[in-house]
Amino acid sequence: MTQVPRSRTTSLAAYASVIVLTAVLGSGCDTQSDTPPPAGKGLATPGDGKASAPAARVLLTSQLEAALPNEFSIPVDFDESRTRKAWDNTDDATYCQSEGWPDEWCGEALTFGLAGFTNLEDQELAIRLISFSNVPTAARLFKGEGTVDEVGENPPGDEIDGFELEPSSSSPVWIGKGINVRQGAVIAKIEYSWKAGTDLPSDRLLSLTDMVVQRIQQAQAGKPPTASAR
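and the corresponding structure tokens:
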């Protein structure tokens, strides 16, 4: 490795440090009574609230795919994984549109993903994520208006909204509910459907939503998503 020579500038800097140190030692205890620096210069002070958290990282394709729930994070009821994948959206928004996202969202999204699960009998689960370049864009595109009946009294996420799934002609006896939720620059859609008469936990949909939001937060913090609804 090439050694950097000790320059004359370095020697002068060392000499200057000796002078400063001598002056400080010579002042004795007087330095303890110096006026403290004013508050608000990068340090939190009591009563001023918490310091601002660093901006959450934008999730690109690999990070978004990691945030998608896997077979270890969903309830054991779902023993079959249909798919779990994320796609880049920078070149062609056609596939984004085919996934049911609004055209305006697909025109601004960076990436999107889908994780689907089933028990091949009476339950289906689809979780879709779509990521944008910043929080203001996602907040402009989605405004949550969820009621307490739909999303509970203290729901997860920054914005949230609930909706009913319409029965399809091919599965008229299946019913379901869904939740849209925004966490930072990522919006998630959780769709949970089941055969009428199936015995289910009353908080299943909110539990799934909370897990999805936590996994997004973990990915945004640069951590491996590990949140689980089990």
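(Above: one complete record from the training split.) Confidence is low (pLDDT under 50) at residues 1-53.
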